[in-house]
Target: Cytosine-specific methyltransferase
Amino acid sequence: MATTRPAFEFVDLFAGLGGFHVALDDLNGRVVFAAEWEPALNALYKKNYGVHPWTDINALETDRDIEREIPNHDVLTAGFPCQPFSKAGDQMGFADTLQGTLFFKVHQILRVKRPRRFILENVPNILKHDGGRTQRKIIEMLEALDYSVEVEHFSPHEFGIPQVRDRAYFVGSLDGLDKFEWPTKHKDPTDITSVLRQDVPPARSIPEQTLHAIDMWGDFLRRSPASLKMPSFPIWSMEFGATYPYEDETPPGIWDRRPIWGLRQMGVKGSFGQSLECSVGEQKERIPSHANRDSDYQFPRWKRTFIRQNREFYQHNRSWIDPWLDQWKPEEMQSSFQKMEWNAQGEDRNIDNFVLQIRASGLRIKRPTTSPSLIAFTQTQVPILGSNLTGERRYITPAECAELQSLGDIHLPTSDLDAYKALGNAVNARVVKAIAEVLLEGLANSNSSSTADPEPIVGMRTSTSNKWRDARQECAPITKPPSIGSVLVAGRSA
Model:
């Protein structure tokens, strides 16, 4: 805990691993209230920062609850849950009554406690969500509380950190923002090796099938002629040799039109040139997953373009692709291993020079200048470092991911998977600090709520419900928000 008078006092909502805390502590701020619903992260916050967070913020149902439990403060920070606004989710927005309405809880706290500044963080898609109406709704509600509000988006790589991770930031002030300036975005080169730690034991071994896929695509790159510019579109090897219709008709449309014969006796072939002279059930297994969805009677333009580009690429390069297909037999591998995204145009085609990531869209190969955006990783999506970067192929470690989030040597969840998830949900502390340095100027020299080092006041009520996960509803336009008491659970997930 600080032993000198703080410059300001702040609350840290949906705190997670404490990225906001790290940033504002560096600016001589002191936390007086934190909230984090996930038990393991709640306990880690206490271990890392000496503060026991409140658990379920929705237990603060009424204005009186908020007035009683949350101390006065100068700055409110919140990375309110992002799944309702993320392209990776259902984009239900405020219609997601389990997470989407948590912004209204932040708004309620701002209305009751009136901190002089706030910083809110979310995914950049929130600026475009619902045709821009979500952003306008948020700004209108904040301005109705007499806050001046500005919005901008930043990525850590614009601050010298080797990670591309664009996030939207809303800042507000009761004193106006005439003197506020957003930090300058830098274009200096970054290098992921700056955060790598040598001689670290692997967090876990890379599965054999994943290593096989890396070797397979590494050989694909080696075989490709040096004079050939590698495609910028995703390479879908299942389209090599395929001739099924995709422009005017689609396989699902033909199966509906010809339920007995399907694609038989049409002179067309399926994935990797497989015969379609078989039953409709077998045909469905021999058509790529991106082309065999029921009722998919017309493919979108982007999909038709990718199919056409891959078939043309194959026809122009069969002389070296066919021997590659014969050796590696990608048709025997799972779909995500049959695809490759080359994001390193112009670089030497040695796959071990790069940062690799297995995604549903394929094996993504990225320059070692930056890491892929840290997200709440599944176990298969953790970035893999090529052997020329670290001496052996290995997953990037949680400690290295903490460096990518500017969190230093804080304690992390003991489970690697839990650590990756928490780090993917964290806010980048260096980006927040750069924004806050100008926004918070003057708080220490005015009518700050800070006093001389009282103990932080924090809540410890137990969460009433943590059942928000995986809600699935259709996205609806913004309507009048539901009552705050109807929201089930608070939780940070950005």
